[in-house]
């Protein structure tokens, strides 16, 4: 794998190498080296100060190093400085994967599946808004007025095609792109891949989408709920488990097309969703998206044609059994994809190992069901705030086993601090509501 990389570097006259890695929250961090140091870096890694990265290290445990993954090599499209990129794993001074590195955490969880000869596949739908700018100021004003699947004829279509084209140049397969419900809202769907590749692709896609928007004088945001009263940004994830190119979730004899393994997985995810919600919906703002009336899921249930359900089983084309999957709809694109896939997978595997059975599917609009009907059906609610999600997370054995004790605690501390900062803010709504009333 290494020799073809150096042939491409020589052919394209690459001068610099960007080494990307993810912090605990899923933000991309980078260190740049001249290309002549790449061989040594691939062999030995490169040291950096982990104490400067959110959630990584304290001052007295700062030394960490990056190890590039050759499978992630890509030449950055249309870069004037002639730069290539690797995504890296983060290692601790003991030369083991750092217990706070999200990518290493996902690889460890996938490794347990690989021992059984199985592979976890995921597809993702990335939603985002494009806003106008006034110089350096971002205006929460959509740049177009068209709606869901509209062709438009405006600049939006050209921008989205540019984004898809740039992603393809990066080696990322795009399945589809279209306008979403909100004015100025868009969706780009990333093609199914193994979970590690897809998590890498999400990190890259978020960077590319923002960069292209900036080239057009706009701002792209993955904030879950950037506009009051408008649709929020979700990141629906489609999941299945394969062995030897066979989809183990598929059973053509079942009315929903699901195997016993898939039902166990589904049951496990439903059972643990409250506990891992702070991973799939990680911001204070995430819970302003998870409200009734905007197609975002609120209730913990599943169905097929029901877009008000937390988990949906999409209908597949005839004889396309390898496309069988379950779609989790509560995730949003601000989440760290490595941690999302690690925790959701662990929850699903717990369901399989414990032979859990999911509740009966719900095909009616859950938003319109009376409270007593919801109770009779045993339908529970997702957490309604980051604080509530943290309370469930703090007691979660599933999350702790997926993330490891150190990252589990670091993540909790970061998010608790975020909640505390939010809690003492005085919002415009409060001033408008109470100032003259009391």
Q: How would you describe this protein?
A:
- With 438 residues, this protein is α+β, with helices and mostly antiparallel strands.
- It folds into 2 domains: 2-98, Glutamine synthetase, N-terminal domain (Ubiquitin-like (UB roll), Roll); 108-421, Glutamine synthetase/guanido kinase, catalytic domain (Creatine Kinase, Chain A, domain 2).
- It is built from 13 helices and 17 strands.
- The protein has helices spanning 2-11, 38-44, 102-114, 155-169, 195-215, 260-280, 286-289, 337-353, 371-376, 386-394, 397-403, 405-423, 428-434; strands spanning 16-22, 28-34, 46-49, 63-68, 74-75, 83-91, 119-134, 137-142, 174-179, 185-194, 218-221, 235-243, 246-247, 299-303, 309-312, 326-328, 380-381.
- Strand 5 (74-75) and strand 6 form a beta hairpin.
- It is globular, with a radius of gyration of 22 Å.
- The model has no long low-confidence stretch (mean pLDDT 91).
């Amino acid at each position: 794998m290494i020799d073809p990389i150096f042939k491409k570097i020589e052919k394209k006259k690459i001068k610099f190498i960007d080494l990307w890695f993810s912090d605990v929250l899923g933000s991309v961090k980078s260190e740049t080296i001249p290309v002549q140091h790449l061989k040594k870096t691939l062999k030995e890694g490169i040291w950096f100060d982990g104490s400067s990265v959110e959630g990584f290290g304290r001052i007295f445990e700062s030394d960490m190093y990056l190890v590039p993954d050759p499978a992630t090599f890509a030449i950055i499209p249309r870069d004037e400085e002639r730069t290539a990129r690797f995504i890296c794993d983060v290692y601790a001074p003991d030369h083991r994967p750092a217990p706070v590195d999200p990518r290493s955490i996902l690889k460890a969880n996938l490794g347990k599946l690989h021992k059984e000869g199985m592979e976890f596949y995921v597809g993702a739908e990335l939603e985002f808004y494009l806003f106008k700018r006034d110089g350096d100021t971002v205006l929460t004003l959509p740049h177009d007025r068209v709606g869901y699947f509209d062709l438009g004829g405006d600049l939006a279509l050209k921008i989205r095609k540019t984004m898809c084209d740039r992603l393809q140049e990066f080696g990322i397969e795009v399945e589809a792109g279209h306008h979403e419900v909100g004015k100025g809202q868009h969706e780009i769907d990333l093609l199914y891949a193994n979970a590690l590749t897809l998590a890498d692709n999400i990190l890259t896609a978020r960077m590319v989408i923002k960069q292209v928007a900036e080239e057009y004088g706009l701002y792209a945001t993955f904030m879950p709920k950037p506009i009051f009263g408008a649709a929020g940004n979700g990141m629906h994830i489609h999941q299945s488990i394969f062995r030897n190119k066979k989809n183990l979730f598929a059973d053509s004899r079942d009315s929903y097309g699901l195997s016993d393994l898939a039902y166990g997985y589904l049951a496990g995810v439903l059972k643990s969703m409250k506990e891992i919600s702070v991973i799939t919906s990680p911001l204070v703002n995430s819970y302003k998206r998870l409200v009734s009336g905007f197609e975002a899921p609120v209730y913990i249930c599943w169905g097929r044609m029901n877009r008000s359900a937390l988990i949906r089983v999409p209908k597949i084309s005839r004889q396309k059994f390898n496309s069988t999957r379950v779609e989790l709809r509560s995730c949003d694109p601000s989440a760290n994809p490595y941690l999302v896939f690690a925790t959701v997978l662990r929850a699903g595997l717990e369901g399989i190992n414990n032979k859990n059975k999911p509740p009966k599917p719900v095909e009616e609009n859950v938003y319109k069901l009376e409270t007593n009907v919801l109770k009779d059906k045993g339908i529970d609610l997702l957490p309604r705030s980051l604080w509530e999600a943290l309370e469930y997370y703090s007691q979660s054995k599933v999350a702790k086993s997926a993330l490891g004790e150190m990252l589990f605690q670091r993540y909790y501390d970061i998010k608790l601090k975020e909640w505390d900062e939010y809690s003492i803010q005085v919002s415009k709504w409060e001033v408008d509501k109470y100032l003259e009333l009391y």
